[in-house]
Amino acid sequence: MGKDILSKEETIFSLIIDGKIPSYKLYEDEFVIAILDINPFSPGHALVIPKEAAKTLDKLSSKSASAIGAILPKISRAILDVTGAKEFNVLQNNGVNAYQSVFHVHFHIIPKYEDGRGLQFPFQSSPINHDEAIILSKKIYQHILEGT
Ligand code: 5GP
């Protein structure tokens, strides 16, 4: 569906939540909806979406965060049971450079099959810099304590 039909605050997910466009619905409650991804990495690839229209996870209210956190394991279990996959990834992108394409928070649940279908990662990491880690961990710890 073209982005040009969306108003400024709307996303494709708000239209799905409002029932204005169809989806393959897996779950719905007061705060959360879960649907199949229209362009899946593997069969059963689902999107778990808070109804609250926060653009990124850091903007999401505690109420919606609690609701989504509580339901993720249950939806994951159902997807595993039904697809037969034994492993899965949970992916959550925030921002264009972090591969977010729909600006309404969502969690991907992506079954990983024994034949390799699922999320493919070119993970790149390097050993932690301990001098930097000491400073960073203290600052973030303090920031969380101060209630940001
Ligand atoms: P993101 O890249 O933002 O983390 O993921 C957005 C996801 O939404 C993509 O995997 C994409 O396939 C999915 N998507 C985009 N438009 C639609 C739609 O209209 N319906 C459904 N079910 N999924 C969509």
How are the SSEs ordered, and which strands pair?
Layout (H helix, E strand, L loop, with lengths): L11 H6 L7 E4 L3 E5 L9 E5 L11 H22 L3 E5 L15 E6 L17 H16 L3
Antiparallel strand pairs: 1-2, 2-3, 3-5, 4-5
The structure holds guanosine-5'-monophosphate.
The site of guanosine-5'-monophosphate (5GP) has 14 residues, from strand 2.
Note down, in words, how this protein is organized.
Strand 1 (25-28) and strand 2 form a beta hairpin. This protein has helices at 12-17, 62-83, 130-145, and strands at 25-28, 32-36, 46-50, 87-91, 107-112. Helix content is 30%, strand content 17%. The protein has a single domain (8-145), classed as HIT-like (HIT family, subunit A, 2-Layer Sandwich), CATH 3.30.428. The protein is built from 3 helices and 5 strands, in the order αβββαββα. The protein has a 5-stranded antiparallel sheet with strand order 1-2-3-5-4, covered by helices on one side. With 148 residues, it is an alpha+beta fold. The chain is globular. The protein binds guanosine-5'-monophosphate (5GP). Guanosine-5'-monophosphate binds next to strand 2. Residues 1, 12, 23, 35-39, 47, 93, 99-102 line the site of guanosine-5'-monophosphate.
